[in-house]
Write a structure and sequence with these properties.
Elements: H1 2-31, E1 39-45, E2 47-48, H2 77-80, E3 91-96, E4 105-108, E5 114-121, E6 123-130, E7 141-146, E8 150-154, E9 171-173, E10 176-180, E11 185-188, E12 194-196, E13 203-210, E14 220-227, E15 231-241, E16 244-245, E17 251-252, E18 261-262, E19 265-270, H3 272-275, E20 283-292, E21 302-311, E22 318-320, E23 327-329, E24 331-339, E25 350-354, E26 360-364, E27 373-377, H4 382-387, E28 393-394, E29 400-406, E30 420-428, E31 440-444, E32 454-458, H5 468-493
């Protein structure tokens, strides 16, 4: 009986050991299996790179520049990527099972380029970059990307055992982007930043813009040019991509001034469907015509201010302008007609203006429906030029007159550089004064209209003075003529 009891107790002891062991195995297994209701965090860092070639392999890469391996842990970005730069305000949407539909979460990266998504249960997730909701603070926009969208199965298991959970033990992901922005340049007369012109002379402005990486994702691409009061828009708006004219149905010109408007505004806003057809390095060219008008400040720059508004987010657009504003300029000069001997002011002197080619200046004043226009006409001489319509400049009662709207310098010179010489030809002298026999040369530059007034001198017409032997001879001749007339009359009476 004692043996039976002893054997029974030994059996119970052995059984308890076995049961304890089984319990320990079960507890260990439960501790190494994620719970059904467990949640996980994902820490996303948006890395800014200048070259994605290493990170765009078909299967991606898990080896950093330093040779270290990535399995979901937090990385030393300087060593792994070769940079610590990140992108703030990039929006990401989180989708469950499929990268479309209704997102289960969405946030933008913070100032440090990171964002944490919390409370995600086990399963497959897609973290998708949303450019349309991103609000980058720099002028650049998101361009090319790598590891976007992020596909992740939660939980992510660690190489050394266990899995990433929450907080400081969360899994880290690193989508990468380059950034880019469109360029803009503007010239006048084909290739110059500056040009000079007659008032009313047509000049063509040309805006060019090279499309950036990521252009297909842009929602806004709008060009706006604003003229100063001294410029008049004369139309002929043409839009091209490369050498191909873009149909007007692909862009809007709402808000563009009509031709003939001073201080005009020109708008070209491409439609979103057309933007999607553009590719990086495509060149958009916009040309239109303008003239310097009669309100232009003589010798001053008459610029127009063009800008390009762009962005992937219509509510957070950027602007870029050319480094240098192109401009047109024109000049003038003031004159004073005076007596050479007394400096008395002389009214009624009449002149025409000629250029170096011997052509004469014709001036057509502005009307309610037309633009003022200066032009050069040909004529055999000054009198013929007046007959042909050349402008006649007449000195006022104070002897003054002025010439405005003449070009100076050469194409490419800004308004402060260069000068050009012209000539005044007198076609009618003031009453009692001799007509000038030689043209009067004058100069047009940036300072001649506001600077020193040019004096044009005339001499009075002179006649022989009476008295002395001269007068005696004249009197004798007069007496002789009268006497001969009297004798002739007596003979005819007989």
């Amino acid at each position: 009986m004692k043996n039976v009891k002893r054997y029974f107790l030994s059996f119970l002891a052995a059984l308890s050991i076995v049961l304890l062991a089984l319990g320990a195995v079960k507890t260990f297994a439960e501790d190494n299996t994620p719970g059904e209701n467990d949640t996980y965090d994902v820490v996303l860092t948006k890395v800014k790179l200048t070259d994605l070639s290493k990170w765009n392999a078909p299967t991606g890469t898990t080896t950093g520049l330093d040779g270290s391996s990535y399995t979901g842990q937090k990385l030393d970005r300087a060593k792994y990527f070769g940079t610590t730069e990140t992108l703030a305000n990039v929006w990401f949407d989180v989708y469950k099972d499929t990268p479309t539909g209704t997102p289960v979460a969405g946030k933008a990266t913070g100032a440090d380029g990171t964002v944490t998504f919390t409370g995600l249960k086990a399963g497959k997730y897609y973290i998708v970059e949303n450019k349309a909701k991103s609000t980058l603070t720099s002028d650049e926009q998101l361009a090319n990307s790598a590891a976007v969208p992020v596909e992740i199965n939660l939980p992510v298991f660690k190489a050394e055992g266990g899995w990433y959970t929450t907080g400081t033990d969360a899994v880290h992901v690193y989508p990468k982007n380059t950034v880019d922005k469109p360029s803009i340049n503007k010239v006048v007369s084909e290739d110059a930043k500056h040009d000079t012109a007659l008032v009313g002379e047509t000049k063509t402005f040309k805006v060019t813009s090279t499309m950036p990486e990521g252009i297909k994702d842009y929602k806004v691409l709008k060009f706006t040019d604003t003229f100063t009061a001294g410029l008049t828009y004369t139309g002929n708006l043409v839009v091209k991509k490369g050498d191909t004219v873009v149909a007007p149905s692909n862009y809007s010109t709402d808000g563009t001034s009509v031709a003939g408007t001073k201080a005009a505004t020109i708008n070209v806003a491409f439609k979103e469907d057309y933007i999607k057809t553009l590719s990086p390095k495509d060149v958009i060219t916009i040309t239109y015509n303008a003239v310097i008008n009669e309100d232009a400040v003589m010798g001053a720059a008459n610029p127009n201010d063009v800008k390009l508004t762009y962005g992937t987010n219509p509510d957070s657009t950027k602007e870029v302008k050319p480094n240098e504003k192109p401009e047109l300029h024109t000049g003038g000069a003031k004159f004073e007609k005076v007596d050479k001997a007394t400096s008395a002011k002389l009214a009624g002197a009449k002149f025409v203006v000629t250029n170096a080619e011997g052509k004469y200046l014709k001036v057509t004043d502005a009307t309610a429906t037309t633009i003022a226009k200066n032009e050069w006409i040909e004529a055999t001489d000054a009198k013929a030029a007046v007959t042909a319509g050349a402008k006649v400049f007449t000195s006022a009662s104070n002897g003054t007159f002025e010439v405005k709207g003449l070009p100076y310098g050469v194409k490419g010179d800004d308004n402060t550089t260069g000068e050009t010489k012209y000539k005044l030809v007198e076609v009618e002298a003031p009453n009692g004064y001799a007509l000038l026999q030689q043209p009067v040369e004058f100069t047009i530059s940036s300072t001649t209209y506001t600077g020193k007034i040019n004096q044009v001198n005339n001499n009075k017409v002179t006649i022989p003075q009476t008295g002395g032997i001269g007068s005696a001879l004249v009197i004798a001749a007069g007496v002789l003529v009268v006497g001969l007339g009297f004798i002739a009359k007596r003979r005819s009476a007989k």
